[in-house]
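Supplementary material to the annual report.
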Amino acid sequence: MLARIAQELFWLGRDMTRAEHTARMLDGAFHADVPGTPGERGVTLSWNGVLAVIGAKPPAPGEEAAEGAAAEAVHSAPAGILGRGEIAPLLTLDTENPASVVSCVYRARERARTLRDVISTEMWEALNSFYLSLGRYDLEAALATGPYSVYQDVKERCALFWGLLVKTMLRDEARSFLDAGGRIEGADMVLRMLRVAIPVGDTAGAFDEPAQAHEAEAIALLHAVGGVQAFRRHVRSGPSLNSVGSFLLYESAYPGSVLASLDELRDALEIADQTPRSAPPVLRLGRLIADLELQQRTVDRPEPLVEMLARVQAELEQIDREIDDRYFAVAALSMVHV
Amino acid sequence: MPGDALIDGYSIPDGSCDELLEHDGTPKPHVASLVATLRRLGPQTLMEAGRRRDAIFMQQGITFEVSGSDGERRDRPFPLDLVPRILTGAEWTVIKRGLAQRIRALNAFVDDVYHGHEIVRAGLVPWSLIVSRPSFARAVHGVRAPGGVYTHVSGCDLVRGGDSIWRVLEDNVRTPSGISYVLENRLAMTRLVPELFAGHRVRPVDNYPSLLLEALQAVAPGVESEPTVVLWTPGPLNSAYFEHAFLAREMGIELVEASDLVVRDATCYMRTTAGLQRVHTIYRRLDDDFIDPLDFRPDSVLGVPGLVRAYRAGTVAIANAIGTGVADDKAVYHYVPEMIRFYLEEEPILENVPTYLLSDDKLRKWVLGRLNELVVKPTSESGGKGVFIGPQASAAELEQQARLIEAHAERFIAQELVHLSTVPTETGDGHLAPRHVDLRPFAVFGEEIRIVPGGLTRVALREGSMIVNSSQGGGSKDTWVLDDGASPDLVLPAVVPRKPPRLPDIRYGGWHGQAQQQQQQQAALGPPASR
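Predicted assembly:
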């Protein structure tokens, strides 16, 4: 299939997944924040955490200074009050900000327009309605009074999109790229969240801070991915940062875990690629998956979670680049010449 | 001002105090922020939020079964009033300590009843009273519950009278329910009216399932690795089924019915697709009477034959333990302050409501003389059934009650009327009026006693009514315990805010990501080039 189309499909998947994850994270941060208790207990997946995960604005000249000023402002204002009022709209509604939920959906819809002959009609209509709904009602007012319903709506519409994909889209190369985009973004988002939430330093359990404080953070993390019930059914003990971190990284039975996403990514690439056995991204991916599976089965893990996370993310970045090179570079060349 | 319409004509009933407002209508200092926000939102917003709440509750199945006037049982959305009830940290500390003390004493009492009867020997509680309680279980005489814990889950009802003093109205250590509503109420409040929380720091309640699971695991009989804990429900037709399913889901444990359990060789198992799996702890939500047809009611189809045998053999822990109901009988309640002094050698932190046992002749006559001032309750009922309120009774009702007492004195107790405190409650048209409330905090006893901040505030929705039970038309409110630095027990040291690690840049790609991709590259290189 056309490299350009494949790339659009890939990024459509990524944009949709990014929109959903961002919405879920914001909902999670909101949920933790509203009762107003964080304060000293510092739920890390709070507003600053979410901002760090999403990566605020893409770096522009003078960003360092702006960052510093923003950071200063955050520290001087009472915790929670500055964050919610500013960051939630920024990451949800701000069309200037490419990382916001709305921007992701706008981009996805634009891509879908070029892909109308490839994705099913029902998928297009679902996405288009989603886009139209964001313009239709007063999002700002809704966000101020009842953010939960805004995020709920985003989750439902994304679920509709993926559900229709599963039902109506032919299992061909096109679909594989769409799937691959969704999966790689999912893995990346969860990795970013874990890296922000789990402290650099000792994760082996020897925190000075008591378990209770970290349990709240672990639950916030689970809320942010929608994995609370899955975790409770699978791990029949109280959540700790370590157990939640391991669950979200290694647990192949949980579809949102990094390992599960990578597995699906590999499956998608194996369908999409003509010669998967000699494809660098597929091979690298296979190696990463094998490594994770080994870690999962090892009871006494030699490598602390924090280092594992950093390593996996670096590998994933590399795989992302290799995917770009192998399938889309051809199209990129043509764009440069234009 | 539109907001003032909210509390127009707010008149606190004689003899009661209001929890949020002073008698002149001004808000108490710790709720200033809440009242200001309520005024700003106004009646319309409140009603609108109420409609959304009903829709959401119906959608999520958070309902309570109620018998309609035509006798049909139907699901109605759980009545959550959107105005929370607020307790300061200091108030809560007193309540928490008092309850922990009381539960420890009740636990010791249960153990004593089925072993040495020390408190009877000391002449403090008559043996005839204990043995005549319907919930006294001969079958477990001499059986020590694993870990020495009998009252794993308790919900003691507290009330605050016109003198502002907290008292215990009633103990519930059999199968107290309502915690699921506490958790769902808080969740609903944060979603429906998040602005009410502004300016307050409210202690979280959502760690209850973890607390309960830990406690249930802690009392499991001798096993090194993960014990199997299950929640035993009578089934989906039970009116509290929502809570059973909720807790099982939140704890991540199996929700079993009687047919799933079987006892072989005095050990309890559950039937799984992989054969029989041992069960170590059962959190049971049905009454003793029904749990084992071999030792209790033989006509029970909800029970597991041989379960008591397994319990006696010590191979399974049952929460709450069999026979614990002897401690929450309304007649036994009268002796609880004595129990605290006897078992713990401490003075009770929380007092009882003055109660009179009617089996004593002189006392009975005195009570009959004051019947129009007192409350009379049957000792064996629950859920507010059969409660007689003197000051609200007609002459005919007074006479009838007097006759009942004369005929079966031992089936009743009399209590002083407590003028329950009130909290502003939405009356259906967006306005707020005072309604009477009580408080049911939930405690979990595993290795130690942990109590969830606040608990279920039950509110009588009808004006002037003091019956708060949901089966009698009561509603509930979210209960906030403020994190105002006044709780010395809350010793969590500050978690140092951490700087997040430097993550790789978020990527953008394809046609529509071109602009962002270029921005990123240019930022790395220097001043932006024109496209």
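Chain B has 14 helices and 24 strands.
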